[in-house]
C-alpha cells in the first residue's frame, strides 16, 4: 500500500507507541504501509532502512583503558601514596619510594581491569542478533541479513527460527514460541493472529512475536513493526545502558574511611612539620620527618590487604559453585537485606511434573520429581495404581520424548505426561511404534486440544480409539460420559470435575483433561478423513495437575534467609495464582500481586505496600527494574536473581545481580554473581560467606586502625617532646611492619574460623558504615593503649633514641609495635567475643611467622642495616613482652565489660514485653 492510513486505526499504548497487538491484521498492514501479499518494494525498504537504521542492538563504546587508569590514579589514597613516593625520592629514601611505587601501580592496574568489565552486558546482548531472515520483497521470498529488516517487512517463520524483529502475526498454523528469555514465562506460548485488548500485558500478547525469542512449533508470517533499539530487546539494551554500576557498600565505606584518614594523616604531618620548623630543623630533616609520619599514618597496605581478603572470599565462593565478577561483590553479599528471586529454575527445578490426578471421582497423587521415571501414582490408601489404559491415553496423543537420563525433546508439559506414563508402566516411544496414528488433529490455540486416532488395547482387545488431550474447559464441553475407576461409562459429572479443576488451580497447578471416543471399525475411513468432526460425545478419562516443583533445598534456604533477617520476594513471569501457590509452599511472606496491578500502583502506594507483598506474577522487565530501585530507595541492599534477558536490567541495577549458570550470556555479563548450579540455596550460602568476609574485614580494620592511631600518637608525642628529633620510628621500619608483619596477620584473620551464629543475626546497616562512633571509640581506646606501652622504651629505654643512627630504645619501640600488631590480630579478630578462646589453631599458625620475622630483623646484619635496628638483650625482650601484657588486659577487659552489659540488656529485655522488638531494631541499626 502506498498511502498512509488514517490515524484512527492506531491504538494508544502508553510508552510503547502503537498497540500493534490490538489491531486486526489488515489494519496493522495499513498502519505499517505494507502490502499483505507482496510486502515492501526494494526501493521503499532501502528508504526505510536509511530512515530508521539497521535492525541491530547498539552498545555504547567501551571505556578507554587509559582514561580509567587516570581516574584510578586520581583517587585520594593513590594521590597520598604518590606524594609519599615523590618526597621519599627527594630525600634519598629510594627503597621506600620503590615499595610505595609498586603499591600504587598494583592499585591502578587492579582498579582499571575491574572497570573495563562494565560494558560487557550490552555488548553480549548485541551479539544475540539472528543472522538471516526469510522476507517477502516485491512479491517474492528472499533471504536477507536480519540487520536489513525494516518496519513493514513481511517475514516467514517456522519451528527452530529465532524471531528477527518484533512482529504482528498475520497468519499462523500451530504456532508456539518460547519467550522465557523476554517474559520469564517457562512454557511455550501459543500464538495466533487474533487481536488482543489494548491493555494486554507483554507476556499475554499472543498476536505478537518478539525479537530473539524462538519458534518451537508451527509456522507463521509476521509483519515487522519494530526493529533495532525500538524492539522489546532493544528497550532492555537501553535500560542496561542507563543502569550505572554503582560502588559496593564496602567501597563507599572505605572511600569515607580514606578521606577521614587523609585528614588525620596530613593534619598530623602538618602539625609535626610546624613544630619542627619552629624548632629550626632543616628542610631535609622536615621532609624526612614528614615522610615517616605519612607512612605511619596512611594505611598504605589497606587496599592490598582488603583485596586479599576479598580474593579469599571469592575462591571460597567458587568452591561453592558461585562465581563473582568483582572482588568487591564478595562483601556486598554479606550486606544483603532483600532478595528478589526468579522462580523457574532458581526456586523450582524447571522440570514440569504431574502432582495429582482425578479419574471417575477419585483422587490420586503422583510421587517422584522432575523428569525422573522413579515414582508411582497412588490411590487413597497409598496403594500403587495399575492403569495401563490411562498410561496409553496420555502417552499416545503426545509428541515429546524423555530419555531415561531425563533429557527432554519437545514441550515441557508433554514431557511431564510422558514421565507419568512411564510411572504407569508405559514406554511412550514403544507405544507410539506399536499403536501408530491413523489420523490426528494437531494442537491449535484456536481450539486448544490435540486428538489422535489409533488402535489400542482396551479390556484385552484392540479397539479403534480417538484420544483427546487439551484445555479442561474445552474438553469437558465435548464430553457426554466419563470413565469410572472400574472402567464403566457413566454420565459425566461436570460439577465435580469443575470443582476439582478449581481446587487444582487454586494450588497453582496447571491442568489438562484427557478424553476418548471409542469408534467402530466400520467408521475408520470417515474418522480418518475428518477427525475434527468426531471430537465430540467424548468419554472423560481424567484430569491431571502439573507443577514445576520446588527444589528440595529451596524451602530450607528461604527459612535460613528469614532467620538472618533477609526478606525474600519471588518475581516471575508466571501467572500470579501459580506464583502465589509456590510462594505459600516456600513459606514466603503474605501478599501476591500481578504485573497489571503493579503497573497501576504509583511509586508511593507500592512503597507503602511492599512490606506486605512477597510474590509478583506476570511482571515485565520494567516492573523488575522498578521493584529493585524502590527497595534500594528504602535503604535495602538488594540481590536480584534471574536467568533470562528480561532479568538483565534489574540484575545490573541490583546491589548483587545474580545470574544462573544455565542462563543467557547477557544476564551473566550483567550480573555480579553467577550460580553455576542454578540453585537458590547457593545464593543463601554466598550471603553467609559474604557476612563472614565482612566480619574478617572489620576485624582487620579494627587491628589495622589501632596500629595506625598508635603510630600517629607516637609521632605526635615524639615531635612534641623532642624524642629522637620527632622520628619515633624510621620510615623503613614502618613499611616493613606494614607489609611483612601485617601480611601474616591478615592471612591469620582470613583463616580464622567463622564467627558463631553468622546467619542468626539481622543484616548489618550499611548506612552505619565502618566508621561509626562505636568503632572509632574502639580504635582510639586500643590504639591509645599500644601508643602508651610503645612510648615507654622511647622515654625510659636503655639509651637515647636518635633519628640518625640505630638505638636500642627505638628498636624496643619497633619490637613492641611489631609484636603488638601480632597480638592485635589475635585479640581483635572478634568483638566483643574474646580473642583468646578456641578455636585459635587456624590463626595462631600464621602468627608464628611475623614473630620470627621481628626477631630476625633485630639480629640479622643486613636487616639491621636496612631497618636501623640493633640486637636486644634477653632482659630487653622480656621488658617488651611485659609491656604487651598491658595490651592484653586492656583489650580483653574492655570486651569482657561489654559482654556483661549485653547480657544485662538481654536479661532486662526478657522481662519486658516490648523490649525484644526494640533490641532487634537496635541490632539492625548497629
UniProtKB/TrEMBL annotation:
It is found in: Cell membrane. Keywords: ATP-binding, Magnesium, Membrane, Metal-binding, Nucleotide-binding, Translocase, Transmembrane, Transmembrane helix. Residues 19-93 form the Cation-transporting P-type ATPase N-terminal domain. Residues 1-22 are annotated as: Disordered. It is a multi-pass membrane protein. GO terms for molecular function: ATP binding; ATP hydrolysis activity; metal ion binding; P-type calcium transporter activity. InterPro entries: ATPase_P-typ_cation-transptr_C, ATPase_P-typ_cation-transptr_N, ATPase_P-typ_cyto_dom_N, ATPase_P-typ_P_site, ATPase_P-typ_TM_dom_sf, ATPase_P-typ_transduc_dom_A_sf, ATPase_P-type_domA, HAD-like_sf. It catalyses: ATP + H2O = ADP + phosphate + H(+). One of its GO terms (cellular component) is plasma membrane. The chain crosses the membrane at residues 76-109, 260-280, 286-306, 708-730, 736-755, 776-796, 808-828, 840-862, 874-891. The keyword Transmembrane applies. PANTHER family: CALCIUM-TRANSPORTING ATPASE, CATION TRANSPORTING ATPASE. This is HAD-IC family P-type ATPase. It comes from Agromyces bracchium. The lineage of its organism: Bacteria, Bacillati, Actinomycetota, Actinomycetes, Micrococcales.
Amino acid at each position: 500500500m502506498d498511502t498512509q492510513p488514517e490515524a484512527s486505526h492506531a491504538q494508544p499504548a502508553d510508552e510503547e507507541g502503537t498497540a500493534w497487538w490490538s489491531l486486526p491484521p489488515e489494519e496493522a498492514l495499513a498502519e505499517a504501509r505494507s502490502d499483505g501479499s507482496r510486502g515492501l518494494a526494494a526501493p521503499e525498504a532501502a528508504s526505510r532502512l536509511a530512515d530508521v537504521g539497521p535492525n541491530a542492538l547498539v552498545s555504547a563504546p567501551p571505556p578507554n583503558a587509559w582514561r580509567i587508569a587516570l581516574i584510578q590514579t586520581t583517587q585520594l589514597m593513590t594521590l597520598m601514596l604518590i606524594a609519599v613516593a615523590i618526597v621519599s625520592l627527594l630525600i634519598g629514601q629510594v627503597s621506600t619510594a620503590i615499595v610505595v611505587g609498586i603499591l600504587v601501580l598494583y592499585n591502578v592496574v587492579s582498579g582499571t581491569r575491574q572497570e573495563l568489565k562494565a560494558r560487557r552486558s550490552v555488548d553480549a546482548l548485541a551479539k544475540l542478533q539472528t543472522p538471516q531472515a526469510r522476507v517477502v520483497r516485491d512479491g517474492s521470498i528472499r533471504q536477507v541479513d536480519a540487520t536489513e529488516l525494516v518496519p513493514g517487512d513481511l517475514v516467514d517463520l517456522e519451528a527452530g527460527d529465532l524471531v528477527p524483529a518484533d512482529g504482528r502475526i498475520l497468519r499462523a498454523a500451530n504456532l508456539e514460541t518460547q519467550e522465557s528469555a523476554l517474559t520469564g514465562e517457562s512454557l511455550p506460548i501459543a500464538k495466533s493472529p487474533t487481536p488482543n485488548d489494548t491493555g494486554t500485558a507483554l507476556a499475554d500478547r499472543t498476536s505478537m512475536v518478539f525479537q530473539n525469542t524462538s519458534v518451537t512449533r508451527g509456522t507463521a508470517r509476521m509483519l515487522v513493526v519494530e526493529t533495532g533499539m525500538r524492539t522489546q530487546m532493544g528497550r532492555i539494551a537501553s535500560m542496561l545502558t542507563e543502569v550505572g554500576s554503582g560502588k559496593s557498600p564496602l567501597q563507599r565505606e572505605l572511600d569515607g574511611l580514606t578521606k577521614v584518614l587523609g585528614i588525620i594523616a596530613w593534619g598530623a604531618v602538618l602539625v609535626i612539620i610546624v613544630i619542627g620548623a619552629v624548632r629550626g630543623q632543616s628542610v631535609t630533616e622536615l621532609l624526612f620527618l614528614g615522610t615517616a609520619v605519612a607512612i605511619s599514618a596512611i594505611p598504605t597496605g589497606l587496599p592490598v590487604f582488603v583485596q586479599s581478603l576479598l580474593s579469599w572470599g571469592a575462591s571460597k565462593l567458587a568452591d561453592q559453585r558461585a562465581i563473582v565478577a568483582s572482588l568487591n561483590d564478595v562483601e556486598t553479599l554479606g550486606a544483603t537485606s532483600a532478595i528478589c528471586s526468579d522462580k523457574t529454575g532458581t526456586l523450582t527445578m524447571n522440570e514440569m511434573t504431574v502432582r495429582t490426578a482425578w479419574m471417575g471421582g477419585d483422587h490420586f497423587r503422583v510421587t517422584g520429581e522432575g523428569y525422573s521415571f522413579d515414582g508411582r501414582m497412588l490411590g487413597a490408601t497409598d496403594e500403587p495404581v495399575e492403569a495401563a489404559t490411562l498410561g496409553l491415553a496420555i502417552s499416545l496423543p503426545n509428541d515429546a520424548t524423555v530419555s531415561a537420563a531425563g533429557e527432554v525433546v519437545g514441550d515441557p508439559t508433554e514431557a511431564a505426561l510422558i514421565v507419568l506414563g512411564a510411572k504407569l508402566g508405559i514406554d511412550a516411544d514403544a507405544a507410539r511404534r506399536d499403536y501408530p496414528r491413523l489420523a490426528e488433529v494437531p494442537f491449535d490455540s484456536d481450539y486448544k486440544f490435540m486428538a489422535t486416532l489409533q488402535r489400542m488395547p482396551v479390556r484385552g482387545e484392540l479397539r479403534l480409539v480417538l484420544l483427546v488431550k487439551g484445555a479442561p474447559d474445552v474438553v469437558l464441553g465435548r464430553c457426554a460420559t466419563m470413565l469410572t475407576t472400574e472402567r464403566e461409562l457413566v454420565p459425566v459429572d461436570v460439577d465435580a470435575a469443575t470443582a476439582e479443576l478449581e481446587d487444582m488451580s487454586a494450588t497453582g497447578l496447571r491442568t489438562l483433561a484427557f478424553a476418548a471416543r471409542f469408534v467402530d471399525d466400520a467408521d475408520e475411513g470417515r474418522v480418518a478423513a475428518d477427525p475434527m468432526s468426531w471430537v465430540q460425545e467424548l468419554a472423560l478419562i481424567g484430569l491431571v495437575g502439573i507443577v514445576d516443583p520446588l527444589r528440595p533445598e529451596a524451602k530450607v534456604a528461604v527459612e535460613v534467609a528469614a532467620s538472618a533477617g533477609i526478606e525474600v520476594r519471588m518475581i516471575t513471569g508466571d501467572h500470579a495464582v501459580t506464583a502465589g501457590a509456590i510462594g505459600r509452599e516456600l513459606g514466603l511472606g503474605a501478599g501476591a500481586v500481578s504485573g497489571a496491578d503493579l503497573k497501576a500502583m504509583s511509586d508511593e502506594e507500592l512503597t507503602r505496600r511492599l512490606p506486605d507483598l512477597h510474590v509478583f506474577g506476570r511482571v515485565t522487565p520494567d516492573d523488575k527494574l522498578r521493584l529493585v530501585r524502590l527497595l534500594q530507595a528504602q535503604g535495602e541492599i538488594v540481590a536480584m536473581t534471574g536467568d533470562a534477558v528480561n532479568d538483565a536490567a534489574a540484575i545490573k541495577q541490583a546491589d548483587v545481580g545474580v545470574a544462573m549458570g544455565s542462563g543467557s550470556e547477557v544476564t551473566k555479563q550483567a550480573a555480579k554473581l553467577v550460580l553455576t548450579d542454578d540453585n537458590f540455596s547457593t545464593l543463601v550460602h554466598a550471603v553467609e560467606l559474604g557476612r563472614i568476609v565482612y566480619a574478617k574485614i572489620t576485624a582487620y580494620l579494627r587491628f589495622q586502625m589501632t596500629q595506625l592511631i598508635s603510630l600517629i600518637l607516637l609521632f605526635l608525642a615524639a615531635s612534641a617532646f623532642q624524642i629522637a628529633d620527632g622520628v619515633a620510628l624510621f620510615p623503613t621500619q614502618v613499611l616493613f611492619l606494614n607489609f611483612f608483619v601485617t601480611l601474616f596477620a591478615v592471612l591469620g584473620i582470613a583463616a580464622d574460623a567463622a564467627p558463631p551464629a553468622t546467619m542468626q543475626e539481622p543484616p548489618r546497616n550499611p548506612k552505619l558504615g565502618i566508621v561509626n562512633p562505636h568503632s572509632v571509640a574502639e580504635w582510639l581506646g586500643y590504639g591509645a593503649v599500644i601508643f602508651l606501652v610503645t612510648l615507654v622504651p622511647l622515654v625510659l629505654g636503655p639509651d637515647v633514641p636518635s633519628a640518625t643512627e640505630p638505638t636500642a630504645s627505638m628498636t624496643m619501640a619497633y619490637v613492641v609495635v611489631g609484636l603488638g600488631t601480632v597480638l592485635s590480630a589475635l585479640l581483635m579478630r572478634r568483638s566483643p567475643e574474646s580473642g583468646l578462646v578456641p578455636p585459635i589453631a587456624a590463626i595462631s599458625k600464621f602468627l608464628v611467622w611475623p614473630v620470627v620475622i621481628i626477631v630476625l630483623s633485630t639480629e640479622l646484619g643486613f636487616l639491621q642495616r636496612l631497618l636501623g635496628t640493633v640486637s636486644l638483650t634477653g632482659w630487653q625482650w622480656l621488658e617488651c613482652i611485659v609491656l604487651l601484657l598491658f595490651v592484653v588486659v586492656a583489650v580483653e577487659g574492655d570486651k569482657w565489660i561489654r559482654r556483661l552489659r549485653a547480657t544485662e540488656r538481654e536479661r532486662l529485655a526478657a522481662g519486658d514485653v516490648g523490649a525484644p522488638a526494640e533490641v532487634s531494631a537496635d541490632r539492625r541499626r548497629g
